Amino acid sequence: MNISVFGLGYVGVVSCACFSRDKHNVIGVDVEKTKVELINSGKATIIEKGLEEEIQKSVDLGLLKATQDFTEAVMKTDVSFICVGTPSLPNGAINLAYIFGVVKQIAEVIKNKSTFHTVVIRSTVKVGTLEACKEIIEDISGKKHNVDFGVVSNPEFLREGSAMYDFANPPYTIIGTKSEKSKEIMKSLYQTIDAPIYFIKPEEAEMIKYTNNNFHAMKITFANEIGNICKENGVDGHVVMDIVAKDTKLNLSPYYLKPGFAFGGSCLPKDVRGLTQIAKSLDLKTPLLSSLLKSNFYQVERGLELIYQTQKKKVGFLGFAFKSGTDDLRESPIVEVIETLIGKGYDLNVYDSNVHLSSLLGKNKEYINSHIPHIYKLLKEDVNEVIENSEVLVIGNNAKEFSKIINTIPSNKTIIDLVRVDEKLTSKDNYIGICW
């Protein structure tokens, strides 16, 4: 395949070396003459293990060259990768000027091309950037997306120091595009990479890199705060975190990584408070750990705001134990939502088969009578009664019975789903998901 790579910085030069290593014909493009000359002389523009050797081989084989002439690069290739910088502006916002600048250059050339051209954004960009690029190309070139050209979001996952290895061994390959032609081209391009390919919406692809990097930053910060607390208690933080990381059922797994409602129950809120209090007693600052309950409370507020926005007063709750399969109401965030709405004069009905059964057997009766007797009075035995008497239905936990009945709820009733009982549903018409 004939490929042009715009930007010969870190991501761009590694992409040039690796694509040409796979026997593709690659043209690197950069405004800096020095970088172009380095590549053409078989040299790397950055220090990276194994990079310069591959560049030298590819240049010698005639598979790689560099130029400042963007017109030549686009005319002689079928796919253009944009790997230019997206630095921060003074206010922290992302600067897309270099991205749009390159897109405009490519669009001017596409205007005079008779063959299909795919434009791939490899740089880290905000949601909506690919759509903006598509519009720029259509406006300047007069060509039509998916007919004359296609745009793709293809974020990279390269670590400095092991980028050459990471390119060939990624966790996955992300292809975000609305162009079927470009989708097939990208599929062919990455067929030699032994990693799953996920074809998703461009906007989802654009969020992946930011999400990954912020997750990594969070993990580093978390480990550091735990390490600081361990140190002051005479504990080896590495031993603690090494054991934590060995739990692949919960700690290093997808289990707690599903967007949804606030956490609750007898353990998490109590233990977050307990650890942050330990840190305070040691005069340690733990900004990340100390933010957990604040962020959790915001999710409760967000759920309430979705209810307020309906401007309807008859609200039914399907499930109010903090998770399905339990009758535990301790620090249930749904209880907090219900109590707030009671205080605001809402007409409420509540259904939870586990809580109802528990109250009859006396297992949770003492807690109900002493802590939430006002909510217990709202508890109904029949889920259909709650549905019939409510204008808004809030799904509070993912009990299987709710996934079975959600599609039977009349369309004139608003559904607010806090847990995503059906993975196929996204916010549309009378259905509102808190994070989807």
Automatic annotation (TrEMBL):
Molecular function as annotated in GO: oxidoreductase activity
Documented EC number(s) = 1.1.1.22
Name the catalysed reactions.
UDP-alpha-D-glucose + 2 NAD(+) + H2O = UDP-alpha-D-glucuronate + 2 NADH + 3 H(+)
Task: Output the Pfam families linked to this UniProt entry.
Answer: UDPG_MGDP_dh, UDPG_MGDP_dh_C, UDPG_MGDP_dh_N
Q: Which residues form a coiled coil?
A: none
Q: Which SUPFAM superfamilies match?
A: 6-phosphogluconate dehydrogenase C-terminal domain-like (SSF48179), NAD(P)-binding Rossmann-fold domains (SSF51735), UDP-glucose/GDP-mannose dehydrogenase C-terminal domain (SSF52413)
Its pathway, per UniProt, is: Nucleotide-sugar biosynthesis; UDP-alpha-D-glucuronate biosynthesis; UDP-alpha-D-glucuronate from UDP-alpha-D-glucose: step 1/1
Q: Which domain of life is it from?
A: Bacteria
Keyword annotations: NAD, Oxidoreductase
Q: Where does the UDP-glucose/GDP-mannose dehydrogenase C-terminal domain start and stop, copy by copy?
A: 316-423
Give the matching Gene3D superfamilies.
1.20.5.170, NAD(P)-binding Rossmann-like Domain
Q: According to its UniProt record, which protein family does this protein belong to?
A: Belongs to the UDP-glucose/GDP-mannose dehydrogenase family.
Q: What is this protein called?
A: UDP-glucose 6-dehydrogenase
Give the source species.
Answer: Lacinutrix iliipiscaria
